[in-house]
């Protein structure tokens, strides 16, 4: 019978094993001292690196019921030189939420950029949490717009919807699309409180778009990874698509968005766009 996780004991064991795997030479310490009878770093060395007391490390490794703060967990993760996945695991064991310190991706990860191209004939694009558009295939460009004609700072789905004149009437149900986009953006804003670029973008929208300011003040939260959009395309007419948003495990700040025709008429319209 598999038992549920005893997080206190697992936290203790995890800290011990990661400490014992470290090579003292990587820290400028002699690998063999007369008193160094166990592999890895000593507890006092980890305590010094993490800026906590030796007694605190001892009690953690003995599973004596401590619940370290998020700051202490982060200090231990850095002291033990944990890999990103190990860091998340440590935070989960401590029942703390890791601070999101990663910067938003400014360019598409090459494997994901290739995947976007390979998804043709389905329209596809890659975005980060700010809605910056990082990569797209030709089908998406024909459906929405040629993103290559825009400066990089304007390749943002929310900016285009709110600030780009040609997109003002593009969506049939514009208010719903904007409302859901803002609800998603607010969730991203809370998850990335140190992202100054995102904060500046929200400030710009609030100052220059009354619709955004009104909806932002409502504080709706919704991470919308699936749904339907109906568009008024200048050449193809009304096109309805179902969208799916996927998050790659290896690049969690990059979101893969895939469109599929919602009905036969929309599929015919997409086929015409692709042929043209």
From TrEMBL:
Domain HTH cro/C1-type: 33-87
Domain of life: Bacteria
Any Pfam family: MLTR_LBD
Listed PANTHER family: BLL4672 PROTEIN (PTHR35010:SF2), BLL4672 PROTEIN-RELATED (PTHR35010)
UniProt-recorded name of the protein: Helix-turn-helix transcriptional regulator
Species this chain originates from: Streptomyces iconiensis
